[in-house]
Design brief:
The complex is a heterodimer of chains A (about 260) and B (about 350). Chain A is mainly alpha-helical and about 260 residues long. Chain A has eleven helices and no strands. The longest helix of chain A has about 35 residues. Chain B is of the alpha/beta class and about 350 residues long. Classes of the chains: A mainly alpha (about 260), B alpha/beta (about 350).
C-alpha cells in the first residue's frame, strides 16, 4: 500500500515537472542579465523595462489580447449554441460541419480563409484575424460543451418544462448553469488557442497587423532576447489570473460537480 | 452579451478606420534603421507601418493567395523573378528615381529582372564562413577557403565544432564553389561530386543549423560555421556585448560565395504607389542606405553610401569584397521542377546517411 503511494507520487511529480519546469525556466530567464540568454549571468529587470518601451511589442501584445478576447467571447456563444444543438439533434452532418475546422490542417484553413477574404474584397486586418480565430475556436468550445451536456441529467430540463418554463427559461435557468463549467473551460481554451495561433493568423493578418506570435517569430532571425521571455512571462501571469478569477467568481465553476 | 460583442467589433473596425497617410512596408525584421524611418516619415509626412516576414516563401505564399494592402516589399532576387512571373508587381517609373545612379551598375540589369523594370537593389548579404578568431588561430586553420568546411584534413581538428546551414541550395552552392563550378551549375555529374564531398565532411559537422548558430558561436560551443554574413556580424556584436574573450569574424572564401540581393519592389495592388516611389528614391540616397549597413553589417550596392559607412565595416573584406572576389559572387537562380526533385533526392540521402 505504502509502496504504491510512493510510486504514484513519483509519477505525478515527474508529470508535473515535465509540464512546469520549462515554464519556470522561461520565467527565470526573463530576469537574466544577458542578451544572449544562453547561461545565467545575473538578475535584472531591464528586459521588462525594455518591453514597456518597445512600441512594436506592446502593439502586438495589445492586438493579440483584443483578438483573443473577441474571439473567445464570440466563439463561446456560438460554440455553446452549436454544442447544445449537436446534443439535441444528433445528426452526423451537424457534427461534421462544426468539428471539421478542428481536423483541417491549419495551413489549409489559413490559406482558404485568406482566399475567401480576398474573394469578398474584405480588407485584411484585425477584424479578419478575429473572424478566422472565431471560426476555428467554435469547434473546440462545442466539443467541450457537448461532453458536459452528455453527463447532464435530462430529467431536470423535463421537470422545468413540466413546471411551465419556456424553452429559453429552461436553458437560461437550468441547462446553462449546469453546463457552465464546460462553457468556461471552452472559453479559456478558445482564448489560449487564439492568443498563440501563428499559421492562420499569418495568412489572415493584413498589412500592419501584428500579433504577438507573428512579432516573436519574425524576431527569431535576429536572435531572441530575454525580452521575449519577459512578454511570455506576463502572458502566463495573465492566463493564470484569468483562471484564478474564474474560480473565485464561482468556486464550483471549474470543477465537474 | 450581444451589446458587448457589437462594442468590441466596432472597436476592432475603428482601429482600422483611424488609418491616415500610411506607407505599408512588408519587410524583413530589423532591416531598416529606426532613424531612417523617422527621417522618411518627416519627409513624406506619412506614417511607416511595417509588417515582417522571415522567409521569401512566406511572402510568396501570402501574396499568391491574394493578400493586399502592402505598398512595398523587399524580396530577394529569385523571389522577385517569381513575383514578376506571377504578375504581382507594378513597373517602376524610373523618371521618379534620380538616385538610381548611385547604384553600382554590376547590381543592375540582372537576369532576375532585366532592365530593372520592377525592382531596385536595397541591400545584400553573402553566405560565407564565420569563425571564432581565438580557436582558429590556436589550431592554425585557414579562414579564406571552403576547404576548411569540406576538407577532412582541416575538419578533424575542429570535429564537432562546425555547423553548416540547413539549406540544400546554400550547402550545394558552397560545395560546387569549392569544386570550382558555378553555384548555379546544374550538371547532375557535378551535383554527385558535390553530394559526395558533403557526405565525406558530414561526420565532422556538429549539425545542420540555420537558426541558432548565432548563439552557438557567441557562447563558444561552435567555432566555425557556414552562415549568412549578417548573422555572423550580429554574432560578433553579441559576443562583444557579452564581453567574450574572442571575436566572431567573417571569412570570405577565395573560391567565391553566394550573394543574396534584396530588392525594393512595388506590389500591384499598392494603396499608395506614390509613397512607394518616394521611399525607393529616398532609400537610394547614400546616407539613408548606409544606415542599414552600419546597423546590421549588410552589403551595400550603393556607391554613394560608402562615405557614410563606418570604417571598420568598410574594411571588412566579407562585407565589401575586393574586385577579384566580387566577381566570384553569384546570386542563386531557382531550379526547375525536375532539377529540384533531383536536388531533394540527393539532399535526403545526405541527411539520412550516416
Amino acid at each position: 500500500m505504502r509502496k504504491r503511494r510512493v510510486g504514484l507520487w513519483t509519477a505525478a511529480l515527474a508529470g508535473y515537472a515535465f509540464l512546469y519546469v520549462p515554464l519556470v525556466i522561461v520565467i527565470a530567464y526573463s530576469f537574466n542579465n544577458s542578451r544572449l540568454n544562453a547561461e545565467w549571468v545575473g538578475f535584472t529587470l531591464d528586459w521588462y523595462r525594455t518591453l514597456f518601451h518597445d512600441q512594436d511589442m506592446l502593439l502586438a501584445a495589445g492586438n493579440s489580447l483584443a483578438i483573443a478576447l473577441v474571439a473567445s467571447l464570440v466563439s463561446t456563444v456560438l460554440g455553446t449554441a452549436a454544442g447544445v444543438a449537436m446534443y439535441r439533434y444528433p445528426s452526423k452532418l451537424l457534427s461534421v460541419l462544426v468539428l471539421a475546422p478542428i481536423a483541417i490542417p491549419e495551413i489549409l484553413m489559413g490559406v482558404s480563409l485568406l482566399i475567401f477574404f480576398v474573394l469578398l474584397n474584405f480588407t485584411l486586418g484585425l477584424a479578419s484575424v478575429a473572424l478566422a480565430h472565431i471560426a476555428f475556436c467554435i469547434g473546440f468550445v462545442a466539443i467541450v460543451v457537448r461532453a458536459r451536456l452528455a453527463g447532464m441529467d435530462e430529467t431536470l430540463t423535463e421537470a422545468a418544462r413540466d413546471c411551465g418554463a419556456s424553452p429559453w427559461n429552461t436553458f437560461r435557468y437550468i441547462t446553462l448553469p449546469l453546463i457552465m463549467p464546460g462553457v468556461i473551460a471552452g472559453a479559456l481554451m478558445a482564448f489560449t488557442l487564439s492568443i498563440d495561433d501563428f499559421v492562420i493568423t499569418f495568412f489572415t493578418a493584413g498589412a500592419g497587423t501584428v500579433t504577438l506570435p507573428l512579432q516573436i517569430y519574425s524576431m527569431i532571425k535576429i536572435a531572441v532576447t530575454p525580452e521575449v521571455n519577459a512578454v511570455s512571462s506576463l502572458l502566463m501571469l495573465l492566463t493564470l489570473a484569468l483562471i484564478i478569477i474564474a474560480s473565485k467568481i464561482s468556486p464550483t465553476l471549474l470543477r465537474s460537480e | 452579451m450581444s451589446r458587448i460583442i457589437a462594442l468590441l467589433a466596432s472597436l476592432l473596425f475603428s482601429v482600422q478606420a483611424l488609418a491616415k497617410d500610411e506607407f505599408h512596408l512588408y519587410n524583413w525584421n530589423n532591416y531598416i534603421a529606426p532613424e531612417t524611418i523617422k527621417r522618411f516619415e518627416d519627409f513624406c509626412k506619412c506614417q511607416v507601418v511595417q509588417t515582417y516576414y522571415s522567409d521569401n516563401e512566406e511572402l510568396l505564399a501570402k501574396l499568391a493567395a491574394g493578400a493586399k494592402g502592402y505598398d512595398m516589399l523587399v524580396p530577394t532576387s529569385n523571389a522577385v523573378q517569381a513575383l514578376i512571373k506571377g504578375g504581382q508587381l507594378k513597373p517602376v517609373d524610373k523618371s521618379q528615381l534620380p538616385n538610381l545612379n548611385n547604384i553600382n551598375p554590376i547590381y543592375l540589369n540582372t537576369p532576375f529582372d532585366p532592365g530593372n523594370k520592377y525592382s531596385v537593389p536595397y541591400a545584400m548579404s553573402t553566405t560565407i564562413i564565420g569563425y571564432n578568431d581565438q580557436k582558429m588561430k590556436e589550431l592554425g586553420l585557414p579562414t579564406d577557403t571552403w576547404a576548411v568546411i569540406f576538407d577532412p584534413k582541416y575538419l578533424e581538428k575542429v570535429k564537432g565544432r562546425v555547423t553548416v546551414l540547413d539549406s540544400s541550395s546554400e550547402l550545394f552552392a558552397a560545395a560546387l564553389k569549392y569544386l570550382g563550378y558555378s553555384a548555379n551549375d546544374v550538371d547532375p555529374k557535378h551535383w554527385d561530386e558535390a553530394a559526395a564531398l558533403i557526405k565525406k565532411a558530414k561526420p565532422y559537422w556538429a549539425a545542420f543549423n540555420a537558426s541558432s548558430y548565432i548563439k552557438e558561436l557567441t557562447v563558444g560551443n561552435i567555432w566555425l560555421v557556414h552562415g549568412y554574413s549578417n548573422d555572423i556580424f550580429q554574432a560578433n556584436l553579441d559576443a562583444k556585448a557579452a564581453g567574450r574573450p574572442f571575436q566572431i569574424l567573417q571569412g570570405m572564401p577565395k573560391e567565391g560565395a553566394v550573394l543574396a540581393v534584396d530588392n525594393m519592389v512595388i506590389h500591384k495592388d499598392a494603396p499608395r504607389p506614390d509613397l512607394a516611389l518616394k521611399f525607393m528614391n529616398f532609400m537610394l540616397e547614400g546616407k539613408n542606405s548606409s544606415e542599414l549597413t552600419n546597423l546590421i553589417g549588410s552589403g551595400n550596392p550603393n556607391v554613394d553610401a560608402v562615405k557614410y559607412i563606418k570604417p571598420e565595416i568598410l574594411k571588412n573584406p566579407a562585407i565589401f569584397p575586393d574586385k577579384a572576389v566580387e566577381a566570384k559572387l553569384e546570386q542563386l537562380k531557382d531550379l526547375t521542377g525536375p532539377q529540384r526533385r533531383l536536388r531533394n533526392k540527393l539532399w535526403t540521402e545526405i541527411k539520412a546517411g550516416r
